Amino acid sequence: MDDLELTCPVCGETSLVLAEDLAELEEGAVLECEACGAYLEVVSLDPLEVEVVEEGLEGFFVDCPRCGYTFELEEGEEEATCPECGFTFTPDWSEIEEEDEEW
User: Fold this and answer.
1) Binning pLDDT at 50, 70 and 90, where does residue 61 land?
2) DSSP state for residue 88 in the 8-state scheme
3) So what's the pLDDT on residue 86?
4) Main-chain phi, psi angles of 97, to 5 degrees
5) What are phi and psi of 24, to 5 degrees?
6) Are 42 and 31 in contact (CB under 8 A)?
7) Element (H or E) spanning 41, and its range?
8) Cis peptide bond upstream of 91, omega within 30
9) Which pTM was predicted?
10) What is the mean pLDDT of the segment spanning 89-98?
11) Stretch 1-23: mean pLDDT, rounded?
């Protein structure tokens, strides 16, 4: 079994999963993205597929309303353009603002 590149569905960064780590992986295992800290559950081994369990805490991520691609933004940006499909939209920061008010 060869090393495998895994693209994080949250931040889009690619991580290398070593062959010896792949051999020990089981469905249900949880991996952490080195770039954004997202937790990814292994849902399939052949091919390797992961599902986001918890998004990372190191950035602010939005989902494109057109294509569903998840990407990082600076907090408070008034306009976002999806790097995947080019759609421009206004992010909804209300959930972030509500969390801030709770603290």
Assistant:
1) confident
2) E
3) 96
4) -65, -40
5) -95, -10
6) yes
7) strand 39-45
8) no
9) 0.51
10) 72
11) 85
